[in-house]
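Much of the work behind modern protein science is quiet bookkeeping, done one molecule at a time. The fold becomes a row of whole numbers, each drawn from a learned catalogue of backbone shapes. The protein below has been through that process, and both of its lines are reproduced in full.
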Amino acid sequence: MDRATVYKDLPADGLETPYGRLYRPQSQGAQISALIAAFAASMSLGSWVAAIPGDLSTAAQVVFHIPYMLVFFVGYSLWVARINAVVFDTIGRSVLKALWQLIVHRKQPDAREAILPSREKLLEMLVKAQKAGASFRGISWPIAALSVPVGLLSESSTPAMLLVALLAATTLAWGFILGFLGRRGWLPFPEGD
């Protein structure tokens, strides 16, 4: 059973499972559009936030772009890692067990179902993969903390602590927005099926 089969039977508003809600992914076109929009926003958020004080140096305006791009790229990388861990935990162990039986004990697996996940395991894996979209939120906290020196070192008529609060708050907000989009199926899974 593959992911498409599970999603085909999924109600439009998602399915409540013992592992949490499984959301129906948006269409591929909507996901690609959301991904492009998220990338563009990650690239331009620094300009928008730097325009609020209005008198930042060119160097500070450039540096203000970094936290948002880091949340996007590092968040996606962590999402990939977490999905790979979920897949290995669900499928990889049974494949390794089957290989062990085949190589060491010279015994073939009993059935294909012993290796492939059941519908229940697949549901659990898909919910965990969607929940792994929280990687964006998780990584936004240390990136917001690392952006504190950027706000403190930026020369502006705006008080430094206000710049720090502005940069940190918008970095956290961006992580939460991307995490929401990932969890709700608006961003494509970072890996193929």
Observations:
- The mean pLDDT is 86.
- The two ends are 12 Å apart (CA to CA).
